[in-house]
Amino acid sequence: MDNHKRAWTYVLIAAVFEVVFALGTNGSEGFTHLGWSITTVLAAAGGIFFLSLAVKTLDVGVGYTVWTGIGSVGTVVFGTIVFHESLSPLKVACFVLIIGGVVGLKLTSRTAPAR
């Protein structure tokens, strides 16, 4: 796997950690539930670690934006499933726009210059 594909794989892994982090933050209820609290801290560390690997190759602006975009959409989807949060048609439309932006950034990204 070339570095560019590997970097995008790292972004996707980091985004999964981001979703778990966000859901864990909600589930921890202010870090008062030990299991959710530990999950939150580990997921935050995992997300940052994999994002740091990705931005060794990708532009940081692109990598970070895609990471947070995927994390945001994933959090809404799983927040709706796990915590029964509301999901209106307007929310769905806004998240479709975010997904479009993420796809656009992916399609227009380039490999960052060697550091």
UniProtKB/TrEMBL annotation:
Subcellular location as annotated: Cell membrane
Highest rank taxon of the organism: Bacteria
Keywords: Cell membrane, Membrane, Transmembrane, Transmembrane helix, Transport
One Pfam entry name: Multi_Drug_Res
Similarity comment text for this entry: Belongs to the drug/metabolite transporter (DMT) superfamily. Small multidrug resistance (SMR) (TC 2.A.7.1) family.
An example Gene Ontology molecular-function term: transmembrane transporter activity
GO cellular component: plasma membrane
The protein's name in its UniProt record: Quaternary ammonium compound-resistance protein SugE
Residues annotated as transmembrane: 7-24, 36-55, 62-84, 90-108
Bilayer topology term: Multi-pass membrane protein
